[in-house]
């Protein structure tokens, strides 16, 4: 159950840890300016890649899923034993 939420929890924990370390190292106004710089530099590329990835996967859904039917936790085995079809 922990593995299900680790992708959400880790960035939050490490983000708070980094902000706390930044605030401990620099004066508050300087730390906020640095956080603003980080946000301005990193957020636009993240947004562009996230949106483009969403549209790419949506467009290629049939190719990635094989039959277009993805069911959670089910592995279908064919007669030949090949799991890739």
Main β-sheet, in a few words?
none
Mean pLDDT, as a whole number? 79
Task: Compute the separation of the termini in Å.
Answer: 29 Å
- Outline type: elongated
Notable traits:
85 residues; mainly alpha; 0% strand
Describe this structure in words.
The chain has 85 residues and is mainly α. Helices cover 72% and strands 0% of the residues. It is built from three helices and no strands. It has helices spanning 2-25, 28-59, 61-65. Helix 1 packs antiparallel against helix 2 (28-59). It starts with a helix and ends in a 20-residue tail after the last helix. The mean pLDDT is 79.
List the helices and strands and how they pair.
Blueprint: H1 2-25, H2 28-59, H3 61-65
Helix pairs in contact: 1-2
Q: Can I get a quick summary?
A:
The protein is an all-alpha fold and 85 residues long. It contains three helices and no strands.
